[in-house]
Amino acid sequence: MKASTLFSEVHQLKLGLIENCWWSSPVGPVEGIKIAKEMGFDSYDIFPLNTSVEVRKAQRRAFKENEMPCSSFIVAANGLTDFVPEMRKATIDYVRKELEIGFDFDSPTMVLVLGNYSYEKREFKPEEQWNWAVEGVREIADYSKSLGIEIALEYVPYMFYLLDSVDHMAKFIKDADHPVVKANADVSHLFLMGDDPETLERLRNKIINIHFSDCDGKVHEDLPPGRGVVPLKRYLHVLKDIGVSCPVSIELQWPNDPTQIRSWVFEAYSATAKMMQELGLR
Question: Are 96 and 146 in contact (CB under 8 A)?
């Protein structure tokens, strides 16, 4: 096999869409899958928050009918840093149930959002809350591994969030020391917190999930690529160089006019597809 052919195979990525783009619009959770397929997306990510069994069944049919893989599912586990042990246990139980939902969708990746330090790091030692989260993630990871699902910890751009930098992400993964615990890279979050594209080298071989959106550099917005100031193409270039192979999943929220959501999503698709094509990623 020629080296150029091998390089192409390794770095061809799918372009995905996260379903929360539809939340403020008339588009429902089942219709969204069909629309994403029609627009040209390769994969689709779900956020199974308060969805009924009936809706999930309909979504699974839509995935099959449209030949769309469910590349990841997103779960918020803020209670893993709660100072009440019963709350941490309840959170672990909740995440285990969400893992079973993800398993039913044949999804290989759970994006896990951990939560914040309580009381601005003043009432409890930050190290204690960090350790609570590490212990909880390890327990979740044991179950996740049994289902064949990897965990991508999400990096979130808030002052007291546990994983608010590439360095903290790398440290948490090291402390968890579990084969299925890896990283999500949300490029607008990275930029908001001052982590330039080159910092992703510290997460080489750890990134299994990408969230892709733009912002004004000051506020968490999840805008279509091209509407903000994030050096998106540079992030893609570094992700390519470090050998990331997961889908690039577009995350959008809160358009000015929810009735124009399809145009909002297609704008994001077109801009991202163009960047990926120019870099030889798709």
Answer: no
Tell me the H-state helices in the chain. 3-11, 31-39, 53-65, 85-104, 126-146, 166-176, 187-192, 232-241, 261-278
Question: Smallest Cα–Cα separation from 203: which of 191, 195, 194, 212?
Answer: 195
Sequential DSSP letters for 113-128: E--B-GGGGSSS-HHH
Burial of residue 141 (CB within 10 Å: 0-12, 13-18, 19+) is buried
Q: Residue 9, CB half-sphere, CA atoms under 13 Å: how many? A: 6
Domains: count for the chain: 1
Task: With 0.85 as the threshold, say if the pTM is over it.
Answer: yes
Residue 47 φ/ψ region, left for φ over 0, alpha for ψ in the -120 to 50 degree band, beta for the rest: beta
Per-residue pLDDT of 210-250, as tens digits, reads 999 999 999 988 999 999 999 999 999 999 999 999 999 99
pLDDT at 49: 78
Separation CA 175–CA 144 (nearest Å): 18
Asked if 117 and 73 touch (Cβ cutoff 8 Å), the reply is no
Instruction: Locate 69 and state its tokens.
Output: 């893989």
One-letter amino acid of 135: E
CATH number where 251 lies = 3.20.20.150
Q: From residue 97, give the alpha-carbon distance in Å to each of 134, 144, 200, 279.
A: 19, 11, 31, 39
The residue segments making up the domain with residue 273 are: 3-278
Query: What are the Cα distances from residue 273, in Å, to 248, 267, 279?
Result: 10, 10, 10
